[in-house]
Amino acid sequence: MSFSRIIGYERNVSLLRRALATGKLSHAYLFYGIDGSGMKEAALALVEAVFCNGTDGCGECPSCRKVAGLRHPDLHHVQPDGAFIKIDQIRELQKELSYRPFEAPKKACIIEQADKMNTSAANAFLKTLEEPSGDAILILMTTHVDAVLPTILSRCQQLRFPSLSTETIASQLREKGADEDSARIAAALAGGSIERAQEIVEGDWLQTRRSLLERITALSPEEIIPLFAAAEEAAKDKDSAIHLVDLLNVFWRDILLTQSGSSEIVNTDLSPLIRSVAERNSLDRVIEKLERIARTRQALTRNANPRLAIEVLIMSLAD
Length: 319
What we know:
Oligomer: single chain
Helix content: 55-70%
Number of strands: 5
Mean pLDDT: 88
Shape: elongated
Order of helices and strands: HEHHEHEHEHEHHHHHHHHH
Radius of gyration: 23 Å
Number of domains: 2
Strand order of the largest sheet: 2-3-4-1-5
CATH topology of the largest domain: Rossmann fold
Distance between the termini: 49 Å
Low-confidence stretches: none
Number of helices: 15
CATH superfamily of the largest domain: P-loop containing nucleotide triphosphate hydrolases
């Protein structure tokens, strides 16, 4: 994974390249941003650069291929075991980092969802940051930086990976073969995540969203059983609930734009449905529904029950 393949985060790549070139690489980094933003790709690119030639990974040598597949003996990968990263995992990591590298110039570790360390694991890892054993580079990643211990944050160089613009995402999708309409719609629905956009293009989400939106907009508050069935189907877990909320946000935003006389909507292939819903909803009602959608998404990010949150939302959106 060469740094040149990290799209949309030129500043972060520049900082890492400069640190490598000047020999001032930090022993600990914390990458934070939205899920699917490219943090993991950037972490792997950094490790490849360190292990390959010290400047950038070639992507072709045995070392780079092993890093890309998380199979390198000097790269240690930690992620939650169940709901948390546990102290036994950190102790095992500390033991591995105390050994000499097998092949690479130094050891490296990538810790995904660093905010999921339980209290004992976080305190144990803090000692590793304060008194690193051997020559190692530590890369932590999180989508919830506020949940990471402040003492850990203060000992890491932090790099933010914000949401990518829809234009950047759409351009990348087109380069990978997506048609214009699919790229534009997927980019708008992806919430700034290139990974999510790719999943939308490659899956059946674009095809199923029409029937899903038609079903939801046709519901009435009196249809309790269909309402609950729709919520159960759409909110199997937190991620699917958030994806549905993002879809509804874009759809109702298109309705608001239509009512305002704008033709700059995302779901151009759903224009008849959008016009129909716009005609039977007042401007104030559309704004109220958009506010409800925004509140639901915020609640989901704070670990609200996905099914209950979607049930309440769909009831509020039902005509």
